[in-house]
Amino acid sequence: MKIKSIQTKRVTIPLRKPFKTALRTVYQVEDVLVCLQTDEGILGYGEAPATAVITGETLESIEAAIHYFIAPTLTGCSLMELDTLFHKMDGCMIHNTSAKAAVDMAIYDAYAKMLGMPLYQLLGGAANEIETDLTISVNDIPQMVSDSLEAIRRGYRILKVKVGKEGLADVKRMKEIRNAVGPDIKIRVDANQGWEPKEAVRIIHALEDANVNAELVEQPVKADDFSGMQFVTSRVNTKILADESVFSAKDAIRIIEGRAADLINIKLMKTGGIHEAVKICDIAQTYGVECMMGCMLEGKVAVSAAAHLAAARHIVTRADLDGPSLCAVDPYKDGPLFEEEIIRLLDAPGIGISALPD
Ligand code: MG
User: Fold this and answer.
1) Is 2 among the catalytic positions?
2) Beta strand pairing status for 134-136 and 342-344?
3) Considering only CA atoms, which of 302, 311, 313, 221 is closest in space to residue 269?
């Protein structure tokens, strides 16, 4: 079975409320959708958002990478030779990880459909549901407290709180949220590179002293500040999760070997898809370093692909796959069930989405 064509179109989905981090404010999900067609009529779907502040990609650059490099490289190739496909895709251009992720998941989707099995089973998994957190955007304290309480009413038991803009004022923010939600809710703190190393240590010690009891702190310092990550990780009790610092399997080895984080956040848009994400899982499993499966602000095709991988690997002990839950509407047909905190994978073949939005 050969790849006959790889085409793209765009989708725009309004968010329930603006998404704010230390890096940006976003009002809607805007993604490039990929439709891969085989010569026997199987359709594989993929999706990528443009997260220019993290991967450097725009909607236009994703489309151009697919139209001018990836599609011409892969069209006519056998779908049966997965490793060859990914080797060719990674070889035809460097970077452009979100564009590659969209095509990678379309390949896996079509491949699993060809075999008639759900993707999580193809990837080796037995579990068919996972629990995700919900992201609480950076806002004033009363707004963040009310957003946190609303998330708990919706059923979430884990919150991922965005901070990183106001130094020690973030501690007050976290304290108020902890007081409001009580002791049983898990709180993940994401600084999105917002702190300097010494500042990060001060803030995390203050969080520890204030009994905020954060489960982890994500990416306290700049993505390329390797020694800064080591500095922070070695000086605090709270677990440090590397997000923007780890794109590839090579990055994961460096971070783990250098003890520059305790945990790794895997996102398909950083890795260039499932094929590289699987390598990170294998490396992390070898070292006994637990992973989180995360997502950018992305729609149901992309987040579902990540959910399938998360369900398939024991080393992925945490999920931050709330993209579809942040959206006001669901324009996709079928697919995994996003029942607030629980993502349920069904037995439909592939990723499970049966049609893309018009
Ligand atoms: Mg993050």
Assistant:
1) no
2) unpaired
3) 302
Q: What 3-state DSSP class applies to 239?
A: coil
pTM: 0.97
Contacts of 71 (CB under 8 A, 6+ apart): 5, 6, 7, 103
Cα 256 to middle of ligand 1, angstroms = 18
How close is the Cα of 190 to the center of ligand 1, in Å?
A: 6
Residue with tokens 């780890």, as numbered in its chain: 246
Query: Is 80 exceeded by the pLDDT of residue 184?
Result: yes
- According to the model, what pLDDT value does residue 22 have? 73
The residues, any chain, with a CB within 8 Å of residue 245's CB and separated by 6 or more, are 219, 223, 224, 226, 229, 251, 255, 260, 261
Query: In the 8-state DSSP scheme, what is residue 348?
Result: S
Ligand 1 centroid – CA 77 distance (Å): 36
Catalytic status, residue 160 = no
CA distance 195 to 151: 26
Contact present, 3 and 74 (Cβ < 8 Å): yes
**Percent of the chain having pLDDT more than 70?**
100
d(CA 321, CA 11): 19
Taking a C-beta distance cutoff of 8 angstroms, is the pair 249, 279 a contact? yes
Please report the beta strands in the chain, taking only residues with DSSP state E, as ranges in sequence order: 3-20, 25-38, 43-49, 129-131, 134-136, 158-162, 186-190, 216-218, 240-242, 263-266, 291-294, 316-320, 333-334, 337-339, 342-344, 353-355
**Separation between Cα atoms, residue 48 and residue 311, nearest integer Å:** 21
Q: Which of 100, 113, 160, 267 is catalytic?
A: 267
Distance (Å) from CA 193 to ligand 1 centroid:
9
Nearest to 134 by CA among 122, 145, 147, 125: 147
Q: Which of 100, 113, 160, 162 is catalytic?
A: 162
Query: What H or E segment, with its residue span, contains residue 272?
Result: none
3-state secondary structure at position 227: helix
